[in-house]
């Protein structure tokens, strides 16, 4: 993959002609491509994942899961399982001593199903035994008598269906009204769009270890992304105080949603408390697919109005999100979908209705860009339709409508952060296009379908498509965003203590860079995360770069003041006249020059600080309110080759321009963008967890297709706009979510351009990419 970047600290894998490479950078600090501290352990296979944990006297757990998407439980007989040699205990809903319900957004999900199962794979019982095979056999020996019920799997039918849950089927309805609902445009286009169920598909399936404590509590070792919330949920379920439960974060093999489901931790902790022994559970790949949350499948109906010049007049939309059996974070995902339903465009009038409903489908929850990705695919499809109706270039109609700083979202909120949307769009438009493939035999691998997988080269058409995407930063609608960090310095070593989980976002590397730059200390250690530390919140929406990084920076600056004040007082100057660089402290006039270690003189300095962004507010009854702290934007141009006879698609190149605020680690930023684009590519072309009447088909990595290195196109990063957001601690913006949101829409746009077909469904089916009339 190749690419170029503009701005300080820009990185190029292969510099283009005339591109001036940046001067040699310092060895540490912000703006440097500092490698991840855990990279050697991960590449050598010594990284401590939860599946590798061990403890003396270890027992193994297994969970019995429902084979039905909906059924009434008539009886559960655990006698035969409990009597099997090696089995220590079998637990069901009757053994849950505390709150029976749990959930991230709403506590509506039982630890174990009681009277009714509501989705395929819902936990019914759990077993602890002295061997993993024994535990699995015992779980299979539990006899459950079901009365199978008709599942509700079409979210459109959920409105009239009988209640699937005591809280009803409707989780949330947001009616957004902005401007004049009766406004009309000279040109109107309509569209129906369907977005599939994308799975996070972690490299490592969920696992954990629970160890009972002498005080009657329990310690849970797992790959949590929000340990304090997991601790509180576990304590409530176990009937314990939060102080009696400790969650210790083990190595997280990346997280885009799957680590936020406590369905592993709760049975584990309960089994450990009942047996008095350490208990370990390593989920199978099938269990992983059945248990954790997926991207919300979404049905979207759109109507766009524009004037004769292509300027948008009004957007009408209906958005229906399938939450599956339980609420989870569906209310938050719906808020993002409704708020961004018009995209990064100026829209004077909007009428948008959004619903999130319960069904008997697999659970939905937080996945990168939730809500925003689904609507991006739809509103960009509408922009392509408007361009065709008006005879305009798809790039031009977007350029005529892009928003900028000072414009209003349809929620009535003013965009106060940098919004260089036009600049991003122009950057991808002006980038050179890739060369066309040759019709020679040696180049057949370039055709869609791979080697020998395509039809005739003459049936291949190239399409160029565009998409603009946006996401919000941090939590929304009044979420209290706060993080706490402690920085300690002793000798020539600094330590950062913060409960921000490293999920692959690069926070631990960023924390090292912040301390290196602020205190001039090369060796910086980031302590492991557990719930004995103050909370830092979940690892999503770029939170830890902003909130936790901000807390680390404040704590480091407090230590810096402690370090410099004695020297400043001794030499009769203010601390602002002293600087720290490369481990040395110098004054502006050169009179003072000493090392950080000498200034410390054997003392340990430390400080604790918090970072809390400005508050937001919930959307009101008309979808209005200042619900977001900030926004990030991305433009992508996709070049795709399509065999219009077979419907096979090869994405040749994705050209990216992104609004990043400030580049803190060039190599890490590039990796995050490339990963986001590739994840979006999967949603566009192959990733869809298929179900039949609510039952998951092929819950494995054979039946669920993922993009590999062979599927990844060239990803060219042609522009990174470094216009700092003044309210953010470093001015930086989240990097990975917005390319995930934008790239599926760009792929669909390119396939439309190649085939002339509407392309209203993601992932794109081969039959949808077959041109109705083959061009001459």
TrEMBL record:
Pfam families: Ald_Xan_dh_C, MoCoBD_1, MoCoBD_2. It comes from the Bacteria. Residues 44-150 form the Aldehyde oxidase/xanthine dehydrogenase a/b hammerhead domain. Residues 1-20 are annotated as: Disordered. SMART domains: Ald_Xan_dh_C. Residues 7-19 have a biased composition (Low complexity). This is Molybdopterin-dependent oxidoreductase. It comes from Streptomyces siderophoricus.
């Amino acid at each position: 993959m190749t690419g170029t970047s503009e701005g300080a600290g820009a990185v190029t894998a292969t510099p283009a002609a005339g591109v001036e490479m940046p001067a040699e950078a310092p060895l540490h600090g912000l703006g440097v491509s500092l490698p991840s501290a855990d990279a050697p352990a991960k590449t050598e296979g010594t990284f401590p994942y939860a599946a590798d944990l061990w403890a003396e006297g270890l027992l193994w757990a297994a969970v019995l899961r429902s084979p039905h998407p909906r059924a009434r439980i008539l009886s559960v007989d655990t006698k035969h399982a409990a009597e099997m040699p090696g089995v220590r205990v079998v637990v069901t809903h009757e053994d849950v001593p505390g709150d029976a319900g749990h959930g991230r957004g709403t506590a509506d999900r039982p630890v174990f199903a009681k009277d009714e199962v509501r989705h395929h794979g819902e936990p019914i019982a759990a077993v602890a035994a002295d061997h993993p095979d024994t535990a699995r056999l015992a779980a299979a020996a539990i006899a459950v008598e079901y009365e199978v019920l008709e599942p509700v799997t079409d979210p459109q039918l959920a409105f009239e269906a009988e209640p699937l849950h005591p809280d009803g089927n409707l989780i949330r309805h947001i009616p957004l009204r902005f401007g004049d609902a009766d406004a009309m445009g000279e040109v109107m286009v309509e569209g129906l769009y369907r977005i599939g169920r994308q799975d996070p598909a972690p490299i490592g399936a969920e696992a954990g270890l629970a160890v009972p404590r002498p005080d009657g509590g329990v310690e849970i070792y797992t790959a949590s992304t929000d340990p304090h919330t997991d601790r509180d949920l576990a304590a409530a379920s176990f009937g314990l105080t939060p102080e009696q439960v400790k969650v210790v974060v083990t190595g997280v093999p990346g997280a885009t949603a799957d680590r936020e489901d406590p369905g592993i931790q709760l049975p584990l902790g309960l089994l450990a408390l009942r047996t008095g022994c350490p208990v370990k559970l390593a989920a199978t790949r099938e269990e992983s697919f059945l248990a954790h949350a997926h991207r919300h499948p979404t049905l979207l109906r759109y109507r766009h109005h524009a004037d004769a010049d292509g300027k948008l007049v009004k957007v009408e939309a209906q958005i229906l999100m399938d939450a599956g059996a339980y609420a989870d974070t569906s209310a938050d995902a719906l808020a993002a979908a409704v708020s961004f339903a018009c995209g990064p465009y100026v829209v004077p009038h909007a009428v948008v209705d959004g619903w999130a409903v319960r069904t008997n489908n697999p659970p939905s929850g937080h996945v990168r860009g939730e809500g925003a990705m689904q609507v991006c695919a739809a509103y960009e499809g509408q922009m392509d339709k408007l361009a065709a109706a008006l005879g305009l270039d798809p790039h031009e109609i977007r350029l005529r409508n892009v928003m900028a700083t000072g414009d209003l979202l349809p929620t009535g909120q003013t965009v106060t952060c940098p919004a260089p949307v036009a600049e991003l769009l122009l950057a991808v438009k002006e980038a050179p296009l890739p060369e066309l493939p040759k019709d020679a035999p040696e180049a057949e691998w370039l055709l869609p379908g791979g080697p020998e997988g395509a039809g005739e080269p003459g049936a291949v058409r190239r399409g160029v498509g565009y998409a603009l995407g946006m996401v919000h930063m941090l939590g929304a609608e009044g979420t209290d965003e706060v993080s706490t960090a402690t920085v300690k310095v002793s000798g020539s070593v600094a330590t950062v203590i913060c409960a921000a989980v490293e999920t692959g976002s690069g926070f631990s590397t960023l924390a090292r860079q912040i301390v290196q730059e602020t205190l001039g200390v090369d060796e910086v250690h980031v302590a492991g995360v557990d719930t004995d530390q103050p909370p830092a919140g979940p690892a999503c929406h770029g939170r830890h770069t902003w909130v936790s990084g901000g807390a680390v920076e404040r704590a480091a600056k407090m230590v810096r003041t402690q370090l410099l004040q004695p020297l400043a007082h001794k030499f009769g100057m203010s601390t602002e006249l002293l600087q720290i660089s490369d481990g040395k402290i110098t004054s502006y006039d050169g009179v003072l020059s000493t090392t950080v270690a000498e200034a410390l003189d054997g003392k340990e300095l430390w400080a604790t600080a918090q970072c809390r962004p400005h508050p937001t507010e919930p959307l009101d009854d008309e979808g209005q309110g200042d619900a977001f702290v900030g926004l990030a934007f991305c433009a992508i141009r996709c070049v795709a080759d399509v065999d219009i006879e077979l419907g096979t698609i090869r994405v040749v190149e994705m050209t990216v321009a992104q609004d990043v605020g400030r580049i803190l680690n060039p190599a890490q930023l590039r990796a995050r963008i490339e990963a986001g684009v590739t994840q979006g590519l999967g949603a566009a072309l192959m990733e869809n967890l298929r179900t039949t009447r609510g039952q998951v088909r092929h819950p494995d990595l054979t039946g669920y297709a993922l993009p590999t290195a062979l599927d990844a196109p060239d990803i060219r990063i042609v522009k990174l706009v470094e216009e700092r957001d003044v309210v953010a601690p470093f001015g930086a913006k989240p990097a990975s979510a917005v390319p995930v949101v934008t790239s599926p829409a760009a792929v669909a746009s390119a396939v439309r351009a190649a085939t002339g077909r509407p392309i209203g469904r993601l992932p794109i089916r081969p039959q949808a990419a077959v041109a109705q009339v083959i061009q001459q």
